[in-house]
Amino acid sequence: MSAIVFLPGLICDQAVWEDQVKELLHRGFECQVIDYGNADSLTEMAYIALEQAPESFALVGHSMGGRVAMEVARQAPQRITQLVLMDTGYLPLAPGSAGEKERAGRMALIEKARQQGMRIMGQEWMQGMVLPQHLKDEPLCNAILNMIERKTVAQFEAQQTALLTRPDATDVLRSLNCPTLFICGSDDLWSPVSQHEAMSEQVADSIIEVIAHSGHMCTMEQPQAVNQALIHWLQPHPG
């Protein structure tokens, strides 16, 4: 079985991939989750991933991790055997008022983390990241908040900086020549299905898998559905 490298999203760690790694290890895959440390650019995060990864690997990125995955593809496309981009985007910060609104929102979260701590900030951040009914799922919410709390404010600020300075990845998508799968929660408000359709149009022969009854955090909201999508995609098929 091939090696799989997992790239977590903003202020996420191995917990966001816990169910997927457990299932894929059981099926004989080699799995590795990347830690970006204090990196404050997607380019640097991609470099860190490539330094830690084996020579060739399947690459799976969620949210910010999807953007990192595209930067890995920019730096070393020959090392990626298969690519999965989940609940993510590809465009840079929008110009004008839309970009300023996003910047202000991200800076407000950083300030809240400084003043009240990562967990309190996470309670606000989480509101739009999972389905409203999942906010009543105490184990799920605690798992997300515990993950957020493991990150420092400095790491949160560094990753927000990376997202605010993100490059346009349109050229990367158009250059991809490895099998590519897009996965998106059906009700992802931050990175909607339509955004993944736009990305898929840039990639020859790519496929989209929509995860029902899920928001942005589909690996934790609907882990079994994500597992099945990944297993079907990653396992070799006759012919």
UniProtKB/TrEMBL annotation:
Residues 4-229 form the AB hydrolase-1 domain. Gene3D superfamilies: alpha/beta hydrolase (3.40.50.1820). InterPro entries: AB_hydrolase_1, AB_hydrolase_fold, Carboxylesterase_BioH. It comes from the Bacteria. PANTHER family: HYDROLASE ALPHA/BETA FOLD FAMILY, PEROXISOMAL MEMBRANE PROTEIN LPX1. This is Pimeloyl-ACP methyl ester carboxylesterase. It comes from Amphritea atlantica.
